[in-house]
Amino acid sequence: MLDEKGTVRISKYLSMLLRHQPEAAGLVLDEGGWVEVDELIAACAARGRRFSRADLDHVVANNNKKRFAYSPDGRRIRASQGHSVAVELGLAAAPPPEVLYHGTASATLPLILRDGLRPMSRQDVHLSADVETAVRVGSRHGRPVVLVVEAAALAAAGHEFRVSANGVWLTDAVPPERLRQLHP
Questions:
Q1: Which residues have C-beta within 8 Å of that of residue 176, sequence separation ≥ 6?
Q2: Burial of 82 (C-beta count, 10 Å sphere; 0-12/13-18/19+)
Q3: How far is it, in rounded angstroms, from Cα 150 to Cα 90?
């Protein structure tokens, strides 16, 4: 059984491979971001990153952000969202709640308030349904700031929202006029 350190180590490596650099392990993701589990395990082992299917099951089940998902038959795996490589997750449009939240570091606030939220190196802007998650996300790069996104108003104006398997809301962009700081 993996300890917490081992779980985090494998999770970070999988995030890199399944979201950003599959070629680093000689992997090719299909159009939906999927790769065969056996192929992933073998490719990682060939690069000195050995783990079993049971270890992988543990990482998928215990990742605090639920970053990974198995296909219904359990033979393929993919990242739930956050890709910088082109994939089509096949997520249907969904009506968002009235508001969603975005956590960021305070240093980025002036730029975001001027230009809005953009996907940057990812395919989509990531939003959360709760403040706590937004605070945790914003804390990764400094003092966190939480922005309130007027999601229902954006949807009414034609913006499409999708929700990933792990509950992260995705959209193409959020204009600055639909943002406000939660705690000024």
A1: 112, 113, 114, 115, 116
A2: buried
A3: 24
C-alpha–C-alpha distance, residues 117 and 103, integer Å: 11
pLDDT tens digits along 8-31: 999 999 999 999 999 999 999 999
pTM of the complete model: 0.76
Residues 6+ apart with CB under 8 A from 120: none
Q: What is the third-level CATH fold of 4-79?
A: Arc Repressor Mutant, subunit A (1.10.10)
Cβ–Cβ under 8 Å, residues 82 and 30: no
Nearest to 48 by CA among 7, 8, 4, 10: 10
- Same CATH topology for 4-79 and 100-181: the answer is no
Contact 35, 24 (CB under 8 A): no
CATH class as words, domain 100-181: alpha beta
